[in-house]
Amino acid sequence: MPTTQPNATISKKLVYMRDWPAQRGSLRELIIADGTAPEILALLQGALVPAVALGHHDSPAEVLQTITTLLAGEELDTLHIVAHGRPGVLNIGGQSIDTAMVRSSGHLLATWNCPEVALWACFTGADGTFVEALHKATGAKVYATTNVLAGGNVGPWQLSGDHARSKGISGVLSSATVNAWPHTLAVIDIAKVFKSSASNKVIESNSITLEAVNSLANATNVQFTSANPADASFSGNNVAGTLTYTIAAQNYTVYGVVSRNFKQGADHQGFYFTDTGPDYVLGNSETAFAYLLQDLTEAGNPFVPGSSYGCSSDPVADDLNAILNEQSTDISVTTVDNVVINEDSPYAVFKISNSSGAAKDISALDVPLNGSPAVGEAGTADFNGAVTYQYYGVDAYGTDLVAPLTPKWRDYGGTISLASASDLYVRVGLVVDDTTLEYNEAFSLNVTVGTGPGAPVVQGLGTINDIGQGKLFPANFVPLTQPANGTDDDRDAGVVSVGNIDVNEGSPYAVFEVTGTPLQVVSLALASGTATGDGQDFGLFAPGSDLQVWDGVAWVPYAGGPVALDANGELLVRTAITNDTISDNNETFQLRVTNTADVPYVGTATIKDDGTGTLFLDAAPTGGVPATSPGPLNNDAPTVLVSGPEVSEGSNAVFQVRLSNASATPSTISLGLSGGTASASDYSTALSAYYYDAGVKT
Question: Would you say 258 and 224 are in contact if contact means Cβ atoms under 8 Å apart?
Answer without folding.
Answer: yes
